[in-house]
Design goal:
This protein is an alpha/beta fold. It is globular. It has 7 helices and 9 strands. It starts with a helix and ends with a strand. It folds into 2 domains: about 130 residues, Rossmann fold (3-Layer(aba) Sandwich), CATH 3.40.50; about 90 residues, putative n-type atp pyrophosphatase, domain 2. The strands form 2 sheets. Strands 3-2-1-4-5 form a 5-stranded parallel β-sheet, with helices on both faces.
């Protein structure tokens, strides 16, 4: 009887994984609820300003999947608006065929654009979409992530008040308080979902090993716009 109930609940899920905090935290929350994450799906976009997909640090997704001991499906996309959705649909269909998934989990917080399109793809494929972070308070989410044992770094910044000095170091509660201050002063999104920053998870309770960045450079476009380019990284024992 229990097995049938689990089947109806949609135990086997694929997770859309960007390498950043939101997608990883969504996985963490779903696993705590008893769901099985059967595979990860990562889309590598050639378009740095993709409407759908996170780009800085995405090349670390394969190492992170290894750290979590979860299979990963990686697909490349040119990142053309709307066309990239067909490529995402193909990747989700592959996950369904290969891992017999019943649903897809995303780390969407407030992006209606992303959520609506993912929901539509899932509906077309007969899958259920899960967004455990949807409309979560931004400050609360950031603090919960750190309190849950996540270690994150910023791999990109693009907002007044943020600069290259934020890149490559662990984000602390003090940094979150600074983001809250910037939100009050300039209305930036504390969780970075408006593109103010991009993040990379280097360790968390999901990881059996930690991700260590060995070599990186910083490309500074403007005073408040910069991105981290990772040249060398590996997994190490915790």
């Amino acid at each position: 009887m229990a097995a049938k109930e689990n089947k109806k609940k949609g135990k086997r899920l694929a997770a859309l994984f960007s390498s950043g905090k939101d997608s990883a935290y969504a996985i963490y929350k779903m696993k705590k609820k008893g769901y099985e994450i059967s595979c990860l799906i990562s889309m590598i976009s050639e378009n740095l300003y993709s409407y759908m997909f996170h780009t800085p640090g995405i090349e670390m997704a394969e190492l992170q999947a290894e750290a979590m001991e979860i299979p990963i499906i990686i697909k490349k996309t040119k990142g053309e608006k709307e066309k990239e959705l067909n490529e995402l649909k193909d990747a989700i269909k592959e996950a369904k065929d290969k891992y017999d998934i019943e649903g897809v989990v995303t780390g969407a917080l407030y992006s209606q654009y992303q959520k609506e399109r993912i929901d539509k793809i899932c509906k077309e494929l007969g899958l259920k979409a899960y967004s455990p972070l949807w409309h979560m308070d931004q400050e609360k989410e950031m603090k919960e992530i750190l309190e849950s044992g996540f270690h994150i770094i910023f791999t990109g910044v693009a907002a007044y008040g943020l600069n290259h000095g934020w890149l490559g170091r662990k984000i602390t509660k003090r940094d979150i308080n600074k983001l809250v201050g910037l939100n009050k002063a300039y209305s930036i999104n504390v969780a970075g979902e408006g593109g103010e920053f991009e993040s990379l998870v280097i360790d968390c309770p999901l990881f059996k090993k930690k991700l260590v960045i060995k070599e990186f450079t910083i490309m500074e476009e403007k005073e408040y716009t910069a991105r981290m380019l990772i040249q060398k990284a590996c997994l190490e024992e915790k």
